[in-house]
Write a structure and sequence with these properties.
heterodimer, A: about 350 residues, 7 helices, B: mainly alpha, Cytochrome Bc1 Complex, Chain C, two-stranded antiparallel ribbon, 12 strands, oxidoreductase activity (chain B), transmembrane helix (chain B), cell membrane (chain B), electron transport (chain B)
């Protein structure tokens, strides 16, 4: 006898020699002898189990009553507190009603119903005869259609069946309009005032102190009759003021800011969540959905996370009344990338 | 059923009369005869499938109630319900009617919570049930197709969950939809079009809620119902699997008869599942939409989480670096007609890990059958330790899933444990690759160790904790031999050897066959064979001390 408990399995006896298994194998001793339960032998125990089951069913009845106490007894007074109380009563009532029935039945089955395990033979899913007959039937059917002998019929049928579903695809065309260049334009245009989200009051440049941030919408957004959410989904902007020397504008963008005030699209270039977190100390913008992090001092370049492109910048200036206005629309599509973006 | 020569069945009891009535019209007694006493094996791990079925029934019941009050319109309205903080706020009719279900319909909040909790439980129990089936090898012939049906059910349950999640049109689910929109737009060529068709124009549009509603209450549940019917039909055809043990083999099925004891246990269990869901819904608030407010594309709350089953895809999106060192993961591809954008930083993590997991899941039964060349029917399950490589593969998959899942909470992990969010992400990125490998190695070693422990116990018996002192002063612990039944449970498994490549009819071992041989040795290497009677016999003669079953007399050989 080798050592079974240690050593590599290949060198120990733990690996049986091929072919040995069949002869040298423990025989199935068969089902273990049935063990009687207490309730099978002791009438008192059986009676006790019977009473326990009945009590569980009574608990269920009480639970149902509890539900009605909650339903009719709790007055809702427009506060969350009474709603919670009612919800607790209803929930507990249903819970007891259901658990009482469930545990009662299961206890009944386990303690009192016969618990003899029985063995049943498995039948073959199909007999050899059936299978041969089935194969023959299929062959006969195919043969009688003559589809193998008449390739003209077969090929035209394949063509017809392949084309027939196309209307079912085409008919969904009117689910929506074609994209066109909709994704390339927003509400922003030259002279459009930057306004506070959501009330729409315009922002004066003098209101923006260093370190502050504003959630911004175009002033005309709230005047829209319809499509407000669609327009807002593209047009929302974050406005922040840094020390002018902290901004490092690239060529051509030097005049896109005003006095250290910059405006960037709030829609993440990853999958479109609002980039809502501004870390004032580090000048980082963080998207709370997937943690893409943009550095304001580097024109919102991605410094961490799954986004690739920087947030698009909205060129701004001030109008005659001192209000912040857009110089133009964004110079690139906002939000997540798409195939035609280019 | 009876032929003309037999005397007609004369019912004497009321049961007999009812049975006779039904049988003479629809012939039900044949079915009853077949199934009334059908044997079902019992084991606690078979419960997960039942939980899935029952939570689906509860979903149908509570969902039907909710449809009576819910209005899936995205038309603008002003809230006039009883929840004061939102009075007068502009919102969609869908959101307003969801609020009304919570505040105006008595028991409406309870039904919403029941519906949401049972949805979470439904996906969870389907998943755990599939893990049980995988780790016990229940997917093997003849049940491969039912495994596929189960996989389809898992996907459908995700679809049902997702379409339902968005319906209240609250801020949280709206941001979820926006993420979906971003992912859809990243699909090459057709992405933008699919997005526009899905939302009826630009995001968010005014169509998506009613479209999701139709899918959620009609198409998806109908498909689930159909799949459940096929699934259960196949369970009946195959009969249930059973765990290995004395008296159980591939030719029989051992358990309790359907009527009454199994039916009572299973039927009673429905009420228990319902009761537990009701208990959870009574005490634990879920999806308090009134706190989130109506959907608005501008705000988002930090630390929000998707429902748990979407977490792994969301986590994958978070793990993917946009820039790999200095290489961007989004490419502008110059093509003859212009430049197109491929957003691999979105498309890759959204499709590849989930696609890999599902593809492997669906094909695994065929892969294992090809590698092991095991074409026999299996009705006796494997204990997970007795198929170490399969168990290790399963755990590797679970680890991969869980790393992605954890990544979906990376911000909460960071704030909760006061660590850097970036570090959490870096660690999880590393674990994404290392974790499954570690999981595989550790699991395989643990399974082999457990197998050796089984051998040890089968051959030397269990430790009794009683120490005896021998005449020459040596101390030994007495081991009690197992009885035949308990021992058989430890030794009654197969442990095939790895196969060399088999030459084809031309005497050549093809490359494919060579690969199969390599995979076969990967699958079976380090195997531990079951203990044999001759080993036990040999052990008896060498053991210094053994105890008989009753532990009373120590016998020295």
């Amino acid at each position: 006898m080798g050592n079974h408990s240690d050593g590599t399995p290949t060198s120990s006896d733990a690996v049986a020699k091929a072919g040995h298994e069949e002869v040298d194998k423990f025989q199935d001793p068969g089902l273990p002898p049935h063990r009687l339960r207490l309730a099978d032998t002791n009438p008192k125990a059986a009676k006790r189990a019977e009473r326990q089951v009945a009590w569980l069913f009574i608990i269920s009845i009480v639970g149902t009553l509890l539900f009605f106490v909650g339903y009719f007894g709790v007055r809702l007074d427009d506060t969350i507190a009474t709603l919670r109380i009612q919800n607790t009563f209803l929930g507990l009532g249903v819970a007891f009603a259901m658990l009482g029935i469930g545990t009662g039945i299961v206890h009944w089955a386990r303690a009192l119903m016969p618990d003899h395990e029985v063995a049943e033979e498995r039948h073959e899913i199909r007999s050899e005869e059936d299978r041969q007959a089935a194969v023959k039937i299929i062959d006969d059917i195919i043969d009688e259609t003559g589809i193998k002998r008449r390739p003209l019929i077969r090929n035209t049928l394949i063509g017809a069946v392949a084309l027939a579903p196309l209307p079912a695809v085409a008919i969904f065309r009117d689910l929506g309009p074609l994209p066109g260049d909709m994704l390339r334009h927003t509400l922003w245009k030259e002279g459009e005032r930057l306004a506070r989200d959501p009330d729409g009051t315009p922002i004066k440049a003098s209101d923006v102190t260093i370190g502050s941030a504003f959630h911004v919408i175009p002033e005309s957004l709230n005047d829209l009759e319809e499509g407000k959410l669609n327009a807002k989904a593209k047009a929302v902007v974050l406005l922040m003021r840094l020390k002018p020397e902290d901004l490092n504008p690239s060529e051509g963008r030097e005049d896109w800011s005003y006095n250290g005030i910059v405006a960037y699209s709030k829609i993440c270039t990853h999958v479109g969540c609002p980039v809502a977190l501004y870390e004032q100390q580090t000048h980082h913008l963080l998207c709370p959905c997937h943690q893409s992090t943009f550095d304001l001092t580097q024109e919102c370049k991605v410094i961490f996370g799954p986004a690739v492109r920087p947030l698009p910048q909205l060129p701004i200036t001030v109008d005659a009344d001192g209000y912040l206005v857009a110089q133009s629309d964004f110079h690139e599509p906002v939000g997540p990338s798409f195939w035609e973006r280019g | 059923m009876s032929s003309a020569t037999q005397t007609p069945f004369e019912p004497t009891t009321s049961t007999g009369r009812i049975t006779n009535f039904v049988d003479e019209r629809v012939g039900g007694s044949g079915i009853l005869r077949e199934f009334g006493r059908k044997v079902f094996p019992d084991h606690w791990s078979f419960m997960f499938g039942e939980v899935a079925l029952y939570s689906f029934v509860i979903l149908l019941l509570s969902g039907t109630f909710l449809t009576f009050f819910f209005d899936p319109s995205m038309a603008e309205t002003h809230y006039h319900g009883s929840y004061v903080p939102l009075k007068g706020v502009e919102m969609s009719v869908a959101y307003s009617s969801s609020l009304n279900i919570s505040f105006e319909v008595r028991g409406g909040l309870f039904m919403r919570q029941v519906h949401h909790w049972s949805a979470l439980l439904f996906v969870a129990s389907v998943s755990v049930h599939m893990l049980r089936v995988f780790f016990t090898g229940a997917f093997r012939k003849p049940r491969e197709l039912n495994w596929v049906v189960g996989g389809v059910l898992l996907i459908l349950s995700l679809a049902a969950g997702f379409t339902g999640y968005s319906l209240p049109d609250d801020l949280l689910s709206g941001n979820g939809l926006r993420i979906i929109d971003g992912v859809v737009k990243s699909i090459p060529i057709v992405g933008t079009y699919i997005s526009f068709f899905l939302f009826g124009g630009e995001f968010p549009g005014t169509a998506i809620i009613s479209r999701l509603y139709m899918l959620h209450i009609m198409l998806v549940p109908a498909m689930i119902l159909l799949m459940v019917a096929i699934h259960l039909f196949m369970v009946v055809v195959h009969k249930h699997t059973q765990y290995p043990g004395p008296g159980r083999n591939d030719r029989n099925v051992v358990g309790y008869p359907l009527g009454p004891v199994y039916a009572a246990k299973a039927g009673g269990f429905f009420f228990i599942v319902f009761g537990i869901i009701a208990m959870i819904s009574a005490f634990f608030q879920i999806n308090p939409i009134w706190n989130y407010g109506p959907y608005d594309p501008s705000p988002v709350s930090a630390g929000t989480q998707p429902d748990w089953y979407i977490g792994f895809v969301d986590g994958a999106l978070r793990l993917m670096p946009g820039w790999l060192f200095n290489i961007p993961m989004e490419w502008n591809i110059p093509l003859p007609w212009g430049t197109n954008t491929l957003s691999f930083n979105v498309l890759g993590p959204a499709l590849i890990p989930a696609g890999l997991i599902f593809a492997l899941m669906f094909t695994y039964p065929w892969i294992e059958r090809w590698v092991t060349r095991d074409n026999r029917e299996h009705h006796v399950l494997d204990r997970p330790r007795n198929a170490p490589t399969r168990t290790a593969i399963g755990v590797a998959g679970v680890v991969l899933y869980c790393v992605m899942w954890a990544a979906a909470s990376s911000d909460l992990i960071a704030t909760h444990f006061h660590v850097s969010l970036n570090d959490v992400t870096y660690w999880l990125r590393a674990l994404f690759f290392i974790g499954p490998v570690l999981g595989f190695i550790v699991t395989k070693r643990v399974a082999l160790a457990l197998q050796r422990k089984d051998r040890e116990i089968a051959l030397h018996g269990r430790e009794t904790g009683r120490i005896v002192r021998l005449p020459h002063g040596e101390f030994q612990e007495i081991h009690a031999q197992l009885d035949d039944y308990k021992r058989y449970k430890l030794v009654g498994y197969e442990s095939p050897v790895a196969e060399e490549g088999i030459p084809n009819e031309n005497g050549i071992v093809t490359k494919k066959e060579n690969l199969r041989a390599k995979l076969s040795s990967f699958f079976f290497e380090d195997r531990v064979a079951p203990a044999t009677p001759s080993e036990l016999e040999a052990g008896h003669h060498h053991e210094a001390i053994e105890a008989s079953d009753d532990d009373n007399k120590a016998v020295t050989h």
